[in-house]
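This part of the workshop introduces the protein records we will be handling. As an example, a complete record with its sequence and its structure tokens follows.
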Amino acid sequence: MAAVIAPAMLWAQADVRGSLKIDFPKDSPVSVISSDWGQSRPEVRGGAMVLDLHTQLSLRNSGERRIRGVTLMVLAQAVTPGGKASVTVPSLDVGPGETFPVRIDLRLLRPIQGGNSAVQVVLDGVLFDDLSFYGPNRLESRRAMMVWELEAQRDRRHFKQVLEQAGTEGLQKEILASVARIGDRSQFGMQMVRAGSGRATTYEPERDVQFAFVQFPDSPIEPVSGMARVSGSEAREPRIQVKNRSTKPVRYFELGWIVEDEQGRRFLAGSMPAELNLGPGQKTQVVQDTGLRFPERTGIKNMTGFVNSVEYADGRFWIPSRAEMAVGPLQSALAPSAEEQRLTQIYRKKGLKALVEELKKF
């Protein structure tokens, strides 16, 4: 055994940069300008290799359309749990010929014996300003980047409208409210659990807790009923019945899940994605074999669900409006979109004038 592990240990002590490979297609709309893997380190732990990757890539838009989002897949071992991960950069506005950075900070696992020693960085998808897409989409990155871009367009329209109606003073007031929301959000250390994975130690019996739902009048999907098994700081096996009240078939939706604890604090606990084929007027029940485990002494009091996004069978999407997301428990529990956080950072780092100029670009 020592004779087998020794070469891997020597490899782990060596410079990891020679074992990292960036592999983009020849017709890729983005190209690699530079990469720095100097802070990446491998380490042998038992029978596995732990790859601690830290790098900064510089990419160029080598196409003819403006880029709104990019997803990269980082692959150490395709079939090993923990052997692959992804990095997505949303809310971009990169014109042809322009460069942009992508930061990779990941930890991957790979068996010591067998397999290719190279870690590959491959392109999974690029989203353009006209909402067209390039890439193999093995990670369903088109769906995620489409939702983020639609949220970005929605939130930019909101701040531009505030600027037009209330001027720079109104815009400053609105962006400061966003900064406060980001700072006030409760953060909890949550853990995903699967059915049969064992329960946290608790003296509280299990009980069924019904979901309350925030209903959006124009949502294609209507949550009808739902419940989860709750015991102390755990919520398991959520079941949601939904109805397609639109005139088009739906192939995917995501339901947000908000938890209120015994102290009255509300926070986004997670989401329930569902792949399906739901025709107009049809109902179905979505069941997950996973749940959520919160820190001890976080008693779950109430649960609220809301439809976060919907994809029709024709590839079009629906997302809630700003007004709909500002009602009830959603306003205090949900994080601002990636675009809203980007705009607040521009204000905090460069000031109000820079924010106004940024909004005028769109």
Summary: The CA atoms of residues 182 and 335 lie 7 Å apart.
